[in-house]
Amino acid sequence: MTEVRTSAVVVGAGQAGLSTSWFLTRDGVDHVVLEAETAVHEWSDRRWDSFTLVTPNWHCRLPGYAYDGPDPDGFMTKTEVEAWVGGYAATFGPPLVEGTRATALTEREGGGFLVTTTGPAGETTYCADHVVVATGGYHLPIVPPWAPALDPSVTQLESAHYRNPDQLPDGAVLVVGSGQSGAQIAEDLHLAGRRVHLALGDAPRVARTYRGRDVMTWLSDMGLYDTPVAQYPGGASAREKTNHYVTGRDGGRDIDLRRFAAAGMRLHGLLESGGGATLRFRPTAGSALDAADATYNSINRDIDRWIEQQGLDAPPPSRYEPVWTPDTEHTSLDLDAEGVTSVVWAIGYRPDYRWVRVGVFDGSGRPTHTRGVTAVPGLFFLGLPWLHTWGSGRFLGIARDAEHVAGCLTGALAPRRQAVG
Q1: Which candidate, 26, 87, 184, 391, has a CA 20 to 30 Å from the CA of 19?
Q2: How confident is the model at residue 19, as a pLDDT?
Q3: pLDDT at 419
Q4: One domain, residues 307 and 383
Q5: Pair 313, 171 in one domain
Q6: Other C-beta atoms within 10 Å of 183: how many?
Q7: Are residues 181 and 301 in the same domain?
């Protein structure tokens, strides 16, 4: 086994890990960035072909690196995001080690940490005073435990493995989950002419544009992405909320599931159980649609108040009114009778930190921290949704979070440096 000594190890070379490395590089901190695959694999391997950002391009800001293309209010496609993120490392030359997976993180006797890895050169252990875990919080897809009991002739795949409608066998498709991925995948299939069934969760929705501007631009001006989680309504429970569904496709627009239903999409409530060719749903489709629309209108009212308070000139306000309502709740589905040949699971993901063998987790397996700083000196987390603000899980908030974590890390290093000096 090879041993390597370094001041800090950053695990994960996505936008969070690279942003941390930018600050550590700037501050002259000896470190390595470990990546199990490649720095951009999350964008190249886990997005469908028609994917676009749901946040405007101007939100794309990393330390020392911001979107400077011709369409700041547009929405980059999967290929464009991959190219943009892929160009970041070349701007500052991080000490990146790709194809190397961290398999264990333990505390070292006498202080600091050991990060055990496997890679092309075999097993390597990194000895470091500080570790930043920047692998995000979306690791294991959530699939019901009874999913294997479905008819084996039905194709099942998680949203991360969905690419396009042609990938699936002919026939109708059931998409389970109405968050950002589920709603957009359902739209992708619907626009391709596929018969789509969609099982709704409790995801809220948001308007794409309102009163002449993108809603996310309004919310940024209003400071919503800068509000610390502790000050947000509901406090830390906000971390459990599902993101609002909307799309940047074709220049950006609302996702109105009622309109899809009026055009033939079959909407169901929460998927409860299943086996063989039969699925059962709760009668919650109507209430889910109502709750999503209530959030949509509530956000717009907040924008109305902001416009009034600031004395801004903007087009007149409006209110969304339902274009379709369910006349009955479909609480069961016979896959054979409806010709459903595929199920796409888009329920969400849960974290998997089993390789982190340090006691910093709550009962649900999530790290306990304050702005990414844990109670174990020298151990940090970055890239988590709501790490500090609503913007934390987005390009818009990564730089601020990375600067804070890197500052805490370099602050801890300062006394040792002074003693050496």
Answers
A1: 184
A2: 97
A3: 38
A4: no
A5: yes
A6: 27
A7: yes
Pairing state of beta strands 172-176 and 340-345? parallel
**Domain tally for the chain?**
2
The 10 Å Cβ neighbour count of residue 210 is 23
What is the tens place of the pLDDT at every residue in 49-103?
999 999 999 999 999 999 999 999 999 999 999 999 999 999 999 999 999 999 9
Instruction: Find where tokens 């406090």 sit.
Output: 235
Same domain, 160 and 129: no
Same domain (yes/no): 192, 335: yes
- Backbone φ and ψ for 118, nearest 5 degrees, come out as -125, 145
Q: Kindly state whether residues 284 and 411 are assigned to the same domain.
A: no
The domain that holds 93 is classified in CATH as: 3.50.50.60
Is 150 found in the same domain as 135?
no
Q: Tell me the average pLDDT across 269-292.
A: 98
CB of 12 within 8 A of CB of 105?
A: no
Phi and psi torsions of 365, nearest 5°: 85, 15
Instruction: State residue 12's pLDDT score.
Output: 96
pLDDT tens, position by position, 395-408: 999 999 999 999 99
Please list the residues that pair with 267 across neighbouring strands.
Answer: 198
Does pLDDT of 235 surpass 70? no
The whole-number pLDDT of residue 413 equals 73
